Description:
17 helices, globular, single chain, three-stranded antiparallel sheet
Amino acid sequence: MPHNKTVPQVKGDFLLGNLSQMMANPFQALCDWQRDYGDLVRFRLATREFYLFSHPKLFEQALIKQSDIFVKIHNAGKPTGLALVLGQGLVTSQGDLWQRQRRLMRPVFQRSNITTLLPQIAMAGGNMLDRWRQLGEGAEVDLPREMMQLTLEVITQTMFSTSVLDKIEHIAPSLDTLLKYAAKSLLNPLTFPLYVPTPANQEFKRALGIIDEVIYGIIDQRRTASSAHNDLLDMLLKACDDSSGEKMTDRQVRDEVITIFSAGHETTANLLSWTLYLLARHPDVLAKLQRELDGLPQGKIPNAEDLQQLVYTRAVLNESMRFRPPAGILVRKVSRDTEVDGYSLKSGRLAIFSIFNLHHHADFWPQPEQFDPERFLMPENRRFSFMPFGTGERICIANHFALLESQLLLSMIVQHCDLQLLRTDEVEIELAVTLGPKGGVPARIRWR
């Protein structure tokens, strides 16, 4: 293997590097740079240096074989990215704290426990369908908004035994503000520190205050409850440190709750939104999915055994996650000088692993720009070429929960509804930590 190869550098401005391209459209920039420069490239955003990874072999070498070198961004000092919102929650923490918290939460997300939550997921889906029926035949809805509300209800009911639908008008725009600000803070080092009262900083603080009020309200309500709920929140509040016997502080509980609260519904809402959008644009795929679901007894909500048999439904979801991965990127910091595939990488730089580029790599996916669930009906080894939930020890802890939830809710919606898109043009992709539909997806409800 050749050593000390030079990582291709994206051409840019002398002072700001590639910042203008990134700020104009971060999603498109990452796609263009992979197409024009290759599977490992280097770019600069003002004072901050990045590497962009887009190949399965490079993912494996960095995230698996060198996971001790490609680490989560350390949040001491000035937090950036998701740490601004999630604090030291499971997604952003490191080391002993991360290991302890993941070990604590793992039982909640075991397959055997997840299936017991199906009735609560089905109830949330049924309530949404009932609300849609009350809107009348031909009612118009925005799919991302509806799916966000639905998955937020699922996560709060299953993990925290409560509902926040009465606060949804404040929660939805606040979460949107927080995620977009987090992404910008990571990708633009020229943003002002939070203590500077710019309009963007003030908006972020207001949004964070709204979400914190909701989260601390959930925690306070539980602390004063007279009975146990045996959910994730109970587990967090009862947990004790192995050595000291101390319980978590309110701040640590808050960080874990807001992590599950936000990450636990955002990606699933995007997955369902993209899937319903893609089905509406591909009537042949929709017809085949409907035929599979029509094989269930009329009106039956699928149970755990039924979901196992819905092979094409799972293939549709897998292809949707390949085609429009809800989590479009992973970000790590290079903690010391290293080498990947013969390329020398410098300590202190940030590495962006583009899951979108990976899922559209022509060397691994024939006709990658074609939406084709059939490809997931054939047994193939897709190790490192398909990773919608990440990989390695930091793979999403709730991946099985998200898949089961998505399969059940998608089944219920398609069983009862035909959704007609109100726009004929292709919906753009917006990168703000997750990959969401830009500008919404307006649709008309038709009942089957």
